[in-house]
Write a structure and sequence with these properties.
Elements lengths: L20 H4 L3 H16 L1 H25 L3 E7 L5 E6 L5 H8 L3 H15 L3 H16 L5 H20 L2 H33 L12 H9 L3 H24 L4
Antiparallel strand pairs: 1-2
Helix pairs in contact: 2-8, 3-4, 3-5, 3-8, 4-9, 5-8, 5-10, 6-7, 6-8, 8-10, 9-10
């Protein structure tokens, strides 16, 4: 019977520098831990009020991109301290272009989250970070108020700091955290949308509503606002499932 070398099993040979994701078990543990953290932090009112600003950036970015794709003239974006935002564009007040612009906001965080999750699954973490920085830089050119400027610059600075000073583990953790925030936060934003509509008695007939995207879409499309909320909800849930699967398939 051959001898077994047990040298590597001694505690003297173990150090944090020698540990890798494989020796710790699996990087999937990190993805799951950050999922739990995202659920907890977006579920707590104080932390959600801060983190929701990132979701609002993605939401208003979705409106802006859709407006440009529909040939509308983008007039600027404002982000407010209450985590609300507004994207102004010029063009026909009704029609397909306006409907597409209005519908793009709530799905945007979830769809961006899926895109980031795909990059994580492909082990393109640095690509992900630079794409985030690039998109924020483009968005910055359209910001029209001081708080919006501070929010976008602060978010971009965090990504740049990870690129410059973070190691591979830090970059992966940051990428997964942002992705889960967009995915889980996107769902919570939709839930809040319906709660707000119910509290305000949405669905009133008359002129164009200004309280929510769903009610604006109801006025533009003659389809009930609740239908649009259900569409947003379905996109959010499917995105969470798809994004989670993509991140858990990470294979460096």
């Amino acid at each position: 019977m051959s001898a077994v070398d047990t040298t590597d099993l001694s505690w003297d040979n173990l150090s944090w520098d020698n540990l890798s994701w494989d020796s710790l078990g699996d990087e999937r543990v990190l993805v799951i831990v950050l999922l739990v953290a995202a659920v907890v932090l977006t579920g707590e009112r104080t932390t959600w009020h801060v983190l929701r600003n990132v979701v609002t950036i993605a939401h208003e970015g979705g409106h802006a991109v859709a407006a440009l794709l529909m040939g509308r003239e983008l007039a600027g974006i404002k982000l407010h301290s209450d985590t609300s935002g507004v994207t102004l564009s010029r063009g026909k007040p009704r029609g397909l272009g306006m409907i597409f612009t209005a519908v793009a906001g709530y799905p945007a965080p979830s769809l961006i989250g899926v895109g980031l999750a795909a990059l994580i699954g492909l082990d393109r973490i640095q690509w992900l970070l630079w794409i985030v920085v690039g998109l924020l830089a483009i968005l910055l050119t359209q910001i029209r108020n001081a708080f919006g400027l501070l929010t976008v610059v602060g978010t971009g600075a965090a990504a740049v700091a990870v690129i410059v000073w973070g190691n591979d583990r830090t970059a992966l953790g940051f990428a997964c955290a942002v992705t889960w925030l967009l995915l889980i936060g996107g769902l919570r934003a939709v839930i809040e949308l319906q709660r707000s509509r119910r509290a305000q008695g949405s669905g009133r007939r008359g002129g164009p509503p200004v309280t929510s995207d769903a009610d604006q879409l109801a006025w533009l499309s003659h389809v009930p606002g609740l239908f649009w909320v259900c569409v947003f909800f379905a996109v959010s849930v499917i995105s969470i499932v798809a994004g989670g699967w993509l991140m858990l398939s990470w294979n460096p």
